[in-house]
Amino acid sequence: MLGPYLLGPNDTPENGIYTGDARELAKVIPDESVDLVFCDPIYDRIDDYRWLAETASRVLKMDRACLAWYGGPRLKETIGAMDLALDWVWPLQYTVVAKGRKLIGYNLFVWTTPCLWYRKGAGYPERRIPDTFISHERPSNGHKWNKNISVVTYWMHAFVGQGTIVFDPFTGGGTVPAVCKMLGRRYLAFEIDPDVAQRARDRVRDTQPPLFVAGPEQAALWET
Prior knowledge:
Elements: E1 15-19, H1 22-25, E2 34-39, H2 46-59, E3 60-69, H3 75-82, E4 87-96, E5 102-103, E6 108-109, E7 112-120, E8 132-135, H4 149-159, E9 165-168, H5 175-183, E10 186-191, H6 194-205, H7 216-222
Parallel strand pairs: 1-10, 2-3, 2-9, 4-8, 9-10
Antiparallel strand pairs: 3-7, 4-7, 5-6
Helix pairs in contact: 2-3, 4-5, 5-6
């Protein structure tokens, strides 16, 4: 699908972090081949969210979700950009108690980061989830915009089952691919910065995979 020269030595086409511009790399992803889009764009780049929605609309299978982190005062513009290609559902909230992030110029401490839930078709999570995930732990893998692995694990487990494909076009520190490895999901991830991409690969390499890969009968029990 994509040239192997873009991958790290331990990656495979179905479980790989590709180095390059997501806008170019995504062009060769087959239509309706992805089960979940889960990513963390740079918040003030509204055009990236517009591109994300257009790309997700093409590559997602029907009745599947796109989850995109957002944090900043331009939420209305961001939603307006994504509304052009996907259907808005709900803002999922990730709250880190006593988080020290400041919204400069607004005299505001920000504890909550929304994750914008869009969908293609009429899909829902495979199990009920609260709209707010509260954590007392701060992310600790060293990447500037990293999210706590527990919230990514919780939401991914709710939206897609084992063996499905998760697409992360802005992978950064590699949280989404690492969680995919933990849960037995396949992943396709892009990162434009070669050094950041290598750190993400190292993180995934050091992540523990599932103890076993369940067959259909076991998976049906495990995923309840």
